Amino acid sequence: MRGLFITFEGIEGSGKSTQIALFAKYLTSNGMRIALTREPGGTLIGDQVRKILLDPANNMLDPTAELLLYAASRAQHLHEIILPRMAEGTTVLCDRFSDATLAYQGYGRGLDCEMIRSLDRIVTTGMRPDLTLLFDIDSRLGVARARGRNTSRGLEAEARFENEEIVFHERVRQGYLALAAQEPDRIRIVDGAGTPEAVQEKIRKIADELLRVGK
């Protein structure tokens, strides 16, 4: 039986990392086999690409070069990790996927969204997540959270996007909301401003409804 593919999306500081870990525990407790992964990265090759993409020193990275690096990382990730795990019947939970590329490089950077979709079809052969959870939060609050996290955890070496101006993050946020409006059945918006426990409860209700977890 094919495993499910569930992606977690949202701007910086929206709470994805916290929620994906909590959700993995919830699904595991309901007898589901889970693989937890992320983009960019997820593989040895992808993690090397991640360092390039998130390093603040690379602030001159061209948007098209940025897009192609994400595509290369995704191709490796998909064929090395995601597809094999799903073929084994494992449900894959992924922190960011194709929607992030449209939101960040399309709406955020201003690259042509149809060009991005065409490239993504080559990379993914049209594969789509079974469910996408979009954590929506005020851009200023999210960025403040993310910058505070980077400082407290010593993650300044991965802060290239957090260092962008608020207007960039707002474009990304609006891009995500536009994508959700285009695919409301797949992309479910979750208010990310509440406590981790309250946000997790909303996620579990969605899972129970759409995936029949715990049924």
- Under CATH, the topology is which? Rossmann fold
Total domain units: 1
CATH architecture: 3-Layer(aba) Sandwich
Please tell me how large the radius of gyration is: 16 Å
CATH level-4 homologous superfamily: P-loop containing nucleotide triphosphate hydrolases
Number of helices: 8
CATH class: Alpha Beta
- Order of SSEs, N→C? EHEHHEHHEHHEH
Average predicted confidence as pLDDT = 93
Topology of this protein?
Elements: E1 5-10, H1 16-29, E2 34-38, H2 44-54, H3 63-87, E3 91-95, H4 98-108, H5 113-124, E4 131-136, H6 139-153, H7 166-182, E5 187-191, H8 196-210
Parallel strand pairs: 1-3, 1-4, 2-3, 4-5
Helix pairs in contact: 1-8, 2-3, 3-5, 4-5, 4-7
